[in-house]
Amino acid sequence: MDYRSRMRALREDNDYTQAQLGHLLNKSQQGYNHIETGRAELKIEDLVKLCRFYNVSADYFIGLTDKP
Fold first, then answer.
1. Distance between alpha carbon 65 and the CA centroid of its chain, in Å?
2. Which member of 27, 50, 63, 65 lies 3.0 to 4.6 Å from 1 by CB, making a disulfide possible if both were Cys?
């Protein structure tokens, strides 16, 4: 699983909207959508924020392991 798929799955499993996660990352809903759909890259700072927010490891988030 690539990080975009994991990113979407975590968001949907936790019932968050793209707008809510965009706010967390100081982005618009559209800016967040561009990351999730591959039109933009995820910055390392945003990766750290999302890992802390979901309480998962970066290895899990980027798909290197299936253990959160």
1. 16
2. 63
Residue 47 is classified by DSSP as: H
> What digits encode the pLDDT tens for the residues 20-66?
999 999 999 999 999 999 999 999 999 999 999 999 999 999 999 99
Asked if residues 37 and 3 have their Cβ atoms less than 8 Å apart, the reply is no
Q: Which among 41, 49, 55, 57 is positioned nearest to 13, based on CA atoms? A: 55
Domains of the chain: 3-61 (1.10.260.40)
Residue 48: how many other CB atoms lie within 10 Å: 12
Which residues 6+ apart lie within 8 Å of 67 measured at CB? 57, 60
CB 24 within 8 A of CB 53: yes
